[in-house]
Amino acid sequence: MAMNLRLRDDQTEALKLRAEEEGVSMHAILLRAVDDYLARTAHQALVRKAAKEQTAKWAELLERLK
Predict the structure, then answer these.
(1) DSSP 8-state class, residue 65
(2) What is the superkingdom listed in this entry's lineage (predicted)?
């Protein structure tokens, strides 16, 4: 899927410098950033889901411990 990404001038320059330092394309860095974001937020969603499930499971006990 193709898409346009509009970066500020300072972001473009920083990305260009980083790509040159790493010897990769700006595109490769952006793909890596998207993958990192998706993995991190997927993990956070799993943690939130587990916390809600455990809170519901142990709600009565948690209430008595107040």
Answers:
(1) T
(2) Bacteria
